[in-house]
Design a protein that fits this description.
Elements: H1 9-16, H2 24-57, H3 66-71, H4 80-88, H5 92-98, H6 100-117, H7 123-129, H8 132-149, H9 152-160
C-alpha cells in the first residue's frame, strides 16, 4: 500500500510498544493518522473557496452582519467580506481599509490551522499559540479594535483616506 518512513516512527512505537516490524494493521493505523489531519483541513478550504466564489460572482447573496442589524454598531468582523472582495479584485488598499483587523488576525488563524495540520510534530507550537496568554492577547486586540471602529476617530480616519465606510 505504501512505505513506512522515519516520520512514522513515533506512531509505530505507540502502536506496537516500541517493537520493530510493521504488519498490515500498523500500516492502516499510520495511513489513518496521516490522512485524518488532511481531512480536517480540506473541508474548511473548500468551504472558503466556495464562499469566495459566491461573494465575487453573486454579491447580492453576501449575508449582512446580524450584530450590526440588531444593535447598530459594527462588530470586529464587519467589512471582512468586502475586504476579501476588494483583495480578489486587486484593490489592496480598499481591502485593507475595509477591515484592517482581519489582516492582523488572518496570519494567526493560518498559523493555528497549520499547527493543527502538523499533528503530533507541532504539539508544542499548538499549545503556545492556543494557550491562555495568546488567547488573552487576541481577545484584547479584538476588543480594542471593536471599540476603535465604533468611534468618530475611526470614521474621520477613513474619511481622511478617502474611504467610504457605509455598508
Amino acid at each position: 500500500m505504501f512505505d513506512v518512513t522515519a516520520h512514522d516512527a513515533p506512531a509505530l512505537r505507540e502502536i506496537k510498544g516500541g517493537e520493530r516490524g510493521c504488519n498490515v494493521n500498523m500500516k492502516k493505523e499510520i495511513f489513518r493518522r496521516r490522512y485524518t489531519t488532511f481531512g480536517r483541513i480540506v473541508p474548511y478550504c473548500l468551504l472558503g473557496a466556495v464562499w469566495i466564489v459566491v461573494c465575487i460572482f453573486f454579491p447580492e447573496f453576501m449575508p449582512r452582519c446580524l450584530f450590526r442589524l440588531a444593535v447598530g454598531y459594527d462588530c470586529p468582523a464587519c467589512g471582512a467580506q468586502r475586504a476579501l472582495m476588494h483583495m480578489a479584485a486587486g484593490e489592496f488598499v480598499a481591502g485593507f481599509w475595509s477591515n484592517p483587523y482581519m489582516w492582523l488576525i488572518m496570519p494567526y488563524a493560518l498559523l493555528v490551522l497549520a499547527a493543527e495540520a502538523g499533528g503530533e510534530a507541532s504539539a508544542v507550537l499548538r499549545r503556545r499559540i492556543t494557550g491562555r496568554p495568546a488567547i488573552v492577547a487576541v481577545a484584547t486586540v479584538m476588543t480594542a479594535w471593536w471599540i476603535l471602529r465604533n468611534t468618530s476617530l475611526w470614521h474621520s480616519l477613513l474619511a481622511a483616506n478617502g474611504v467610504c465606510c457605509a455598508l
